[in-house]
Amino acid sequence: MSATPLYPSAPPLSRIALGSSTFGREIQAEAAFSLMDRALARGVTLFDTAATYTAGVSETIMGQWLASRRPKPASVMVATKIYPPYTPDAIDTATAASAQRLGVEVIDLLYLHKWDAAVETPETLAALDNLVRSGRVRALGASNFNAQQLGAALAAQTAHGLARFRVLQNNNNLAVRDVDSATVALARDHGLAIVTYSPIAAGFLTGKHRAGVVSGSRFDMAPGHQPIYFSPEPQRRLEALESLSNLSGQPMAQLALAWAMNRPGVSSVLIGGRGPQYVDQAFDALQIRDPDLLRALDSIP
User: Fold this and answer.
1) CA neighbours within 13 Å on the CB side: how many for 83?
2) Nearest residue to 169 via CA among 300, 244, 268
């Protein structure tokens, strides 16, 4: 777990962070504000969005909340993500558009939303470096990179004296695991924080889809996620989680959250949802400390 601030005025990374992929798609501004209010009240410091979430609507809603609530300086960190193409001109345009929607002059943490071959080019890495040196971005992050991709990018940044990625954000839950030991070791060696997302796998790990995709759910509204989870290995892990839930009396969602929050090397876990109760659910899961129960979770292969 990285204890180094991402930039000089950065708040400490909270164990629980708030994602906003539901904003503008599953919930609108009023409900999103309630969700963010609860997160802020409970000590969440990292608020995460992306240009692709509902075509920028999520960023706009978060920007409206920031303007309305005016959190104390250095008390929160706002992260967003830009999508390929990663040409210098496209990076410049996308960053400016995200900042405008968020209503900020400086973006705290800017991720590349996915790996692309352009990440290996000096032009792209120099364009990212310029964002930091010019003061438009405080820190850089990489999302959905594997260890090999991240390692190559870090090596190039280091070799050319360019601003390096400070955070890796990957999907990681009991069903589908995109933070392996090589990734953890690389992050540790380079001082990167690891932020993971989708701890209950868009509801898959609650068991509610056992009889088929629930109407109005994330899998129903974004069916592209279905093949990732509705396959033999995630299904087997879901069955093991359900058995442990029955034995322990703990809800499946709480156990899935506890698994994600206790991964080695992980600094923060992004949660989402449609109301404040999802924030409370995550904080309740932080209180699961029974060593036998945690070992049982760890033993699910």
Assistant:
1) 7
2) 268
Express each pLDDT in 167-219 by its tens digit. 999 999 999 999 999 999 999 999 999 999 999 999 999 999 987 888 888 78
Residue 115 lies in a domain: yes
Domain that holds residue 111: 16-298
Q: Exposure of 13 by Cβ count < 10 A (0-12 exposed, 13-18 middle, 19+ buried)? A: buried
| Among 195, 175, 176, residue whose Cα is nearest residue 184 | 195
Q: Domain containing 268 — which CATH number?
A: 3.20.20.100
At 216 the pLDDT is: 82
Per DSSP, the residues of the chain read ---S-SSTTPPPPPSEEEE-TTBTTTB-HHHHHHHHHHHHHTT--EEE--TTGGGGHHHHHHHHHHHHH-PPTTS-EEEEEE-S---HHHHHHHHHHHHHHHT-SSEEEEEESS--GGGGSHHHHHHHHHHHHTTSEEEEEEES--HHHHHHHHHHHHHTTPPPEEEEEEEB-SSSB---HHHHHHHHHHT-EEEEE-TTGGGGGGTTTTTSPPTTSHHHHSGGGHHHHSSHHHHHHHHHHHHHHHHH---HHHHHHHHHHT-TT--EEEE--SSTHHHHHHHHHHT---HHHHHHHHT--
Beta carbons of 199 and 261 less than 8 angstroms apart = yes
Number of domains in the chain: 1
Q: Which two tokens stand for residue 27?
A: 């919930």
Tokens coding 103:
């209503």
The span from the CA of 160 to the CA of 137, in Å, is 19
4 assigned to some structural domain:
no
Give the integer Cα–Cα distance in Å for 104 and 58: 15
* Residue 141: predicted pLDDT: 98
